[in-house]
Structure formats: structure tokens, C-alpha cells
Amino acid sequence: MRTHPRTSWILAGVVVSVTAVGSFILGLTSDDRGVVVEAPPAPPSVSAPVPAAAPAPGDDAFRDYFTAGVEYLRQGRPHEALVSFNAASHLRPHMPEVFVNIGFAQATMGNHGDAAGAFDKALQINPNQTNAYFGLAVALEGMGRLEEALGAMRTFEHLTPRDDEKFRVLAASAIWEWSATLEARRGQARPPDAEPKEGN
């Protein structure tokens, strides 16, 4: 198993993912990129929040597993995070954020194939789960599949709003680096007779 040469890429993805997860747990709303937006304040006539519906069975257990997984990721304990997120996935098998976090835990441990599978699962559930494209790109790079990593990162960049400068710069940097690496590989693979001759 090869560990990822860019731990900072994984950590950036974890930040995106943990932000999305934290917003869910704390009762805030978020978009698919994990950008937290506070819920609008209650009208003055409402003194206490009223739930829209009764909690589903397993909500407390799910929240406990999910919160523990987030905390483990923040502490740099991906093995424990993975156990928690796997338990959460059994309670909410159609929640893409769970699989994104499973992917980041796997990628942090260097399990890039398993990470890619988790990110793919998140994208099957929600094709607009932006942070899953970021994680998928990181996992594919870790597997040496730069062409595919480049495609996933371009999708992440495309789906990331223009005003989210931090992540757009990160994506642009990866795209530039991976494109340059692929171009260099293509140049090295060129047969000697394909080199331009002087004087032409």
C-alpha cells in the first residue's frame, strides 16, 4: 500500500467533509460542498424550535457514530473514524456524507482503492456531492491514475462556486501539477525519431 504523497490534500478534503458533517450534526444546513450556512433565525413569535417530524428510529445512534467519526478524523485517528462511519453507514445507507467520510478515512490510511470505492458510492447516491469528487481525485492520484484524477478534480473545480477561492485555488494547483506530470510522461514516451529536427 502506497501512502499519499500529499497529506495536505487529504486533510483539505477532510476539512470540507467534516464541515459538512458538523453542520448536519449541529442542526445547521450546508450545500453539497460542505460550506456551512447558519439556519435562518426563528421568527419572534416562536419561542422554541418545533421539529418538523418525530426523529426516525436510530437518530441518536447515528448521530453518536457520526459525531465520533468526525472527532476521530479531526484527531488524526482514521482507523477509529472508519469504524464509526461504517456503523453510521448501516443506519443511513443513503447518506452520501457518510461515504465521503469513509473515503477520507481510507485515503488517510493509504487505502486508495477502498477510498475511491467509498467516494464512488457517495457519487452514486448524489452526483452533485462536490467533496466526493475532490476525494476521488486524491484517491485516484494515490493509485497512480492521474488521467482519471485530473477528470475528477476538474469536475470538483467546475462544481465549486466562483466565490470559494480557497478550494478553487487548491483544485487549480492540482490540475496544473497533474497536467504537467502527464505532459512530461508523454514527452518521455515519445520515440527518438519523433523529435523535431533542427532547421525545420
What does this protein structure show overall?
Helix content is 64%, strand content 2%. By secondary structure, it is mainly alpha-helical. The longest helix has 25 residues.
| Helical run tally | 8
Level-1 CATH class name: Mainly Alpha
What name does CATH use for the topology? Serine Threonine Protein Phosphatase 5, Tetratricopeptide repeat
Give the averaged pLDDT, no decimals: 78
Helix percent reads 55-70%
Topology at a glance:
Blueprint: H1 7-25, E1 29-30, E2 36-37, H2 59-74, H3 78-91, H4 96-108, H5 112-125, H6 130-142, H7 146-159, H8 165-189
Antiparallel strand pairs: 1-2
Helix pairs in contact: 1-2, 1-4, 1-6, 2-3, 3-4, 4-5, 4-6, 5-6, 6-7, 7-8
Summarize the structure.
The chain is mostly helical.
Keywords, separated by commas or semicolons:
2 strands, Serine Threonine Protein Phosphatase 5, Tetratricopeptide repeat, 64% helix, 200 residues, 8 helices, mainly alpha, two-stranded antiparallel sheet
